[in-house]
Amino acid sequence: MVPDIRRRVDYRVSNLLQSYSDYGIFDIIFCRKDLIYFSQNSKNDIVTRMLRLLNPGGYLAPGIYESLSNNFDKLEIIRMSSGVIYKLKH
């Protein structure tokens, strides 16, 4: 990663089932290979709480094998050659 971008990235280890109150607001959240381990109810709860952490127009990037089967009306699907990412609508 380019050093200028690396300085702006916040890496954290966390329990996705616990509170996100200390995290702040983000432009993009990567949750690679995480959501596949949770039940659908837990996954919906986690994604709903992650969306509260995104700036308007921010992105949620799950892994290629993770889909958001719940219809999140706040998200726009962006298809890419390597999968999909989701953009938070304004």
Defining traits:
90 residues, alpha+beta, 4 strands, 18% helix, globular
What percent of residues adopt helix (DSSP H or I)?
Answer: 10-25%
Largest sheet: 4 strands, mixed
Output the structural class. Answer: alpha+beta
| Count of separate structural domains | 1
User: In order across it, which strands form the biggest sheet?
Assistant: 1-2-4-3
CA distance, first residue to last residue: 29 Å
In the predicted model, the low-confidence regions spanning at least 5 consecutive residues are none
How would you describe this protein?
- The chain is built from 2 helices and 4 strands; from the N terminus they run αβαβββ.
- It is an alpha+beta fold.
- It has one domain (25-88).
- The protein has a 4-stranded mixed β-sheet, with no helix packed on it.
Break the fold down into its secondary structure elements and pairings.
Blueprint: H1 3-6, E1 26-31, H2 40-51, E2 54-62, E3 75-80, E4 83-88
Short account of what is shown:
With 90 residues, this protein is α+β, with helices and mostly antiparallel strands.
